[in-house]
Backbone:
């Protein structure tokens, strides 16, 4: 990656995914610049996770195109997308249960993006670095079963980070955490972003979107409703109607 | 995590020492049957019956260890691996009996053909998950045996048909001994392959697939290629055992190289010894095959089961094996290697924890 | 070996002297151990039990006479059995156990071609003679093995007797329809007819294979009706023979001869078909009616009587029983002829054996199989089995031709 491409790092054009007759994602367009940190919000069932699955290759597209650094990645198998440098987490964490924290992260380092692929020894050394970055250094040798819920979320992020992605997709890594834990997690996302990774995150917690994102994209019924600076987007009437609801919106305004 | 680190180490050491002594006896005792040893008045520690049983044990050690690669490490419960044993046996058998190849030239083809076949059927089969894969692989296991018996060309059975296939007897000195060592070498090789797999990038990919296939794929593991490779590797080792069996047993037919019960036995052995471990499946093979031979009445120890007439004994033997399967799956899910390896000891809490692990 | 035998003789002589026996009468020597793995449980239980009955009939008889006479010393006989659960892999292990642990002097065969093939290899590699009576597949005998001997006629001869008989009848039948199961043994029987019938001036106008164990054979019977053959042959098993006979009646398939390789000789066939079983022929290794001139052991009638005395309620001895007894007789005579218990010498004596017993002539060709005893042809006449061919051993004449179904 000697010269950054002139265009956007990630580009979605008319991305569509249907289940049966229903379009879960319906003609979505947006771009993400290298080094940006962008949030995706929207009510339940808006198609946020489906969109992430489309980008990471878990789902095949029914229409449209996705380009990474100008070349299409639509239709690629998940492992090929990962090797091109897109890492992701799952909303419901999917740790490798029989492994220790270090081994979990080691898998990311062993495989992952093409330039991250290395021998077992180096992979585990990298795993230790990443565990330190997300604050799990002390728990590296614990089995997954011994980790708390917040730690498992960290592990999920650490595993994705260990693939050395250029773009990281985070699916509600703050969900279910208390305020203190959210602050710690925010710190973790910031430090990952600071290493030069572009971040696209799905969140329900508004504080996160406002706190770390430079841009927010609002999805509703599979379509992009609005996008722009978080504060601006969150005051958009359509967004308030569709997603936040009157009562919550008033509270947000008054605060 | 019961017991201190020091007692764990001690148990592990005792376990290793006992294992090493047993292995040394198993491998060296047969040498006392050589003429040179007998003329030097060294007592006979292992006779021809012993070689035969030990060769069968080694054969199952290969099959259980091989199954472990796809079933234990990758987590795909293959129920039709006996197909690869049969394919290996028929590959070597055909090359020797029909094409007149020498044994040592024909043997390497057994794992190659078995692996190629596994790769071919693995591509569609390994898209199936869980019990769908188990059932489909069982179907393949049965179908291959039927095909081998029934394929005709120009009215003549291609693979010897129902009459089976006779190979020429390999007329060498100490034939039984030679095949025992050959099969044992295959077992050691399989264990070495497993050892390598568990330390390699490949093995970590397989374990990741077992633990969570979707997560593995988004981390960059080419799950399809890895699963097929694991299946083919298991097939290759199983096929190797089949190839050796064909020349050892001389006569092969559908009944003796495609027995459906081997499918269950190799899985039970791996479970008994410990799936996903290096030595577990082989240890399970030794224990279970000794039990099978004991119940089958081939061991020197004669016995009478209380309240059981001799007619009913084989049935009782089947019942005992079935019960053992249930007990192992429920109570010793991580196998005897884990059990005696020092990490745990038999206690109510071990059994309770095991029950929790198996009843998700 | 020679030293041991000498020592044995010396001991026997000393024993004889010590007992004060001054006559030249035989003394009692060491026990001869024979070994046989049999499927006493599992899928081959029935046939294996018949095999065991045949072996036991002989061992009772020989031991009542003090044993096998070798150089004026009588050696009692023990037959050691193991249950191989009808599994040929297990049979091979047990064969090795019999040789290694039980020090079996000689081996008797298991039941079935698969186990016999596997055990033949064990006998060959251990150089211990095995005499078998229940593995008729010729492939076993085409391997050049020196230690396996089969007293029964090979599979290819099973239905040849029917063709031989047909050639003697008038009006002479000229066309044959063959319906064969697709297993090894049945195909070997059927394929032999393909080549044999033309040599007797008959043409095989239909050769149809069906899946072993098939219960609906209507299509096969219709095909046979379409070619209107004089002889309808089945090479298969009991249930298939019954199914073919039923379908033949329903489809009004008429032929001069209906002959089935396996099935009609069992009582079940008549029970299942009643009067429709009449006129049906089968090829058999042996029937209780045959008339041979035995050189030793029992006559046919005495054999049947001995069987009924030891196993009451089972009816006449089946041919499985007779051929198994015959295997023991072959071994006994070979040991006597060899004048030794040495495995190699007894093997050589087996190879040279030529003796007629109640079962017929026992003589092995260079491959070790008995091609000299003819198969006999049986016919069910008025609900009773009669031996109708060869004429020299027959107790009745064939009822020929078989009347059409509407004239019965």
Residues:
């Amino acid at each position: 990656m000697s010269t950054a491409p002139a265009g956007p790092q990630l580009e979605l054009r008319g991305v569509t995914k249907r289940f049966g007759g229903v379009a879960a994602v319906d003609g979505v367009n947006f771009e993400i610049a290298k080094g940006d940190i962008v949030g995706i919000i929207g009510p339940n069932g808006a198609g946020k996770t489906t969109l992430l699955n489309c980008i990471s290759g878990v789902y095949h597209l029914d229409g449209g195109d996705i380009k990474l650094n100008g070349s299409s990645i639509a239709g690629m198998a998940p492992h090929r997308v990962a090797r091109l440098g897109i890492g992701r987490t799952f909303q419901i964490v999917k740790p490798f249960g029989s492994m220790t924290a270090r081994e979990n992260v080691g898998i990311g380092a062993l495989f992952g993006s093409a330039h991250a692929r290395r021998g077992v020894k180096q992979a585990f050394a990298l795993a230790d670095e990443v565990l330190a970055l997300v604050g799990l250094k002390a728990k590296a040798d614990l089995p997954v079963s011994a980790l708390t819920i917040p730690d498992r979320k960290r592990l999920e992020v650490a595993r994705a980070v260990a693939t050395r992605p250029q773009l990281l997709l985070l699916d509600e890594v703050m969900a279910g955490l208390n305020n203190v834990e959210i602050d710690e997690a925010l710190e973790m996302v910031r430090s990952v972003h600071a290493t030069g990774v572009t971040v696209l995150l799905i969140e329900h917690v508004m504080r996160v979107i406002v706190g770390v994102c430079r841009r927010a994209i609002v999805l509703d019924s599979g379509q992009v409703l609005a996008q722009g600076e978080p504060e601006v987007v969150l005051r958009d009437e359509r967004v308030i109607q569709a997603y936040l609801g009157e009562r919550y919106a008033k509270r947000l305004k008054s605060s | 995590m019961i017991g201190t680190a020091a007692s764990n180490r001690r148990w592990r050491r005792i376990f290793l020492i006992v294992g090493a002594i047993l292995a040394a006896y198993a491998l060296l005792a047969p040498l006392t049957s050589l003429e040179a040893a007998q003329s030097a008045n060294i007592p006979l520690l292992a006779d021809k019956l012993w070689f035969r049983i030990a060769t069968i044990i080694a054969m199952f050690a290969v099959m259980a260890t091989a199954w472990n690669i796809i079933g234990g490490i990758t987590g795909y419960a293959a129920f039709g691996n006996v197909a690869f044993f049969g394919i290996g046996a028929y590959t070597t058998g055909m090359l020797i009996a029909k094409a007149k190849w020498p044994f040592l030239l024909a043997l390497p083809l057994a794992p190659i053909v078995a692996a190629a076949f596994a790769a071919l059927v693995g591509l569609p089969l390994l898209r199936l998950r869980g019990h769908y894969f188990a059932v489909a692989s069982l179907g393949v296991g049965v179908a291959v045996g039927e095909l081998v018996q029934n394929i005709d060309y120009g009215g003549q059975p291609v693979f010897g048909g129902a009459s089976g296939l006779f190979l020429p007897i390999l007329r060498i000195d100490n034939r039984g001994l030679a095949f025992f060592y050959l099969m044992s070498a295959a077992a050691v090789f399989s264990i070495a392959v497993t050892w390598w797999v568990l330390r390699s990038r490949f093995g970590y990919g397989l374990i990741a697939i077992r633990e969570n296939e979707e997560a593995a794929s988004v981390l960059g593991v080419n799950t399809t290629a890895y699963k097929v490779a694991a299946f083919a590797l298991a097939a290759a080792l199983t096929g190797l055992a089949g190839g050796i069996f064909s020349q050892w047993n001389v006569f092969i037919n559908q009944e003796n190289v495609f027995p459906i019960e081997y499918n269950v036995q190799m899985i039970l052995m791996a479970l008994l010894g410990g799936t996903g471990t290096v030595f577990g499946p082989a240890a399970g093979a030794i224990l279970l095959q000794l039990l099978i031979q004991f119940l089958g009445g081939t061991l020197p120890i004669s016995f009478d089961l209380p309240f059981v007439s001799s007619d009913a004994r084989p049935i009782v033997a089947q019942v005992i094996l079935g019960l053992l399967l249930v007990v192992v799956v429920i109570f010793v899910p991580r196998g005897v290697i884990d059990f005696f390896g020092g990490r745990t000891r038999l206690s109510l809490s071990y059994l309770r924890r095991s029950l929790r692990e198996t009843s998700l | 070996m020679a030293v041991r035998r000498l020592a044995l003789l010396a001991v026997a002589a000393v024993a004889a002297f010590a007992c004060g026996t001054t006559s030249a009468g035989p003394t009692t020597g060491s026990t001869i151990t024979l070994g046989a793995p049999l499927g006493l449980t599992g899928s081959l239980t029935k046939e294996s039990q018949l095999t065991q009955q045949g072996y036991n009939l002989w061992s009772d008889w020989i031991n009542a006479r003090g044993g096998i006479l070798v150089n004026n010393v009588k050696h009692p006989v023990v037959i050691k059995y193991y249950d191989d659960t009808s599994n040929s892999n297990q049979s091979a292990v047990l064969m090795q156990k019999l040789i290694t642990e039980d020090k079996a002097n000689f081996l008797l065969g298991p039941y079935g071609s698969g186990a016999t093939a596997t055990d033949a290899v064990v006998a060959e590699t251990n150089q211990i003679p095995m005499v078998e009576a229940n593995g008729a597949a010729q492939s076993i005998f085409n391997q050049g093995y020196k230690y396996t001997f089969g007293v029964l006629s090979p599979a290819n001869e099973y239905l040849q007797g029917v063709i031989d008989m047909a050639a003697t009848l008038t009006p002479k039948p000229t066309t044959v329809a063959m319906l064969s199961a697709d297993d090894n043994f049945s195909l070997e029987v059927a394929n032999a007819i393909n080549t044999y019938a033309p040599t007797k001036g008959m043409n095989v106008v239909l050769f149809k294979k069906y899946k072993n164990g098939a219960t609906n054979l209507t299509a096969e019977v219709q095909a046979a009706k379409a070619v209107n053959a004089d002889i309808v042959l089945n090479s298969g098993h009991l249930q298939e023979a019954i199914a073919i006979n039923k379908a033949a009646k329903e489809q009004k398939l008429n032929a001069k001869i209906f002959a089935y390789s396996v099935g009609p000789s069992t009582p079940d066939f008549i029970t299942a078909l009643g009067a429709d079983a009449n006129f049906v022929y089968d090829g058999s290794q042996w029937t209780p009616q045959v008339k041979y001139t035995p050189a030793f052991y029992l006559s046919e009638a005495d054999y049947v009587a001995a069987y009924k005395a030891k196993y009451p309620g089972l009816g006449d001895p089946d041919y499985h029983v007779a051929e198994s007894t015959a295997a023991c007789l072959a071994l006994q005579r070979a040991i006597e002829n060899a004048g030794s218990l040495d495995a190699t010498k007894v093997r050589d004596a087996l190879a040279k054996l030529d003796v007629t017993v109640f079962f017929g002539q026992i003589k092995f060709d260079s491959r070790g199989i008995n091609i000299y005893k003819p198969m006999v042809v049986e016919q069910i006449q008025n609900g009773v089995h009669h031996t109708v061919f060869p004429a020299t051993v027959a107790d009745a004449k064939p009822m020929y031709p078989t009347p059409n179904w509407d004239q019965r």
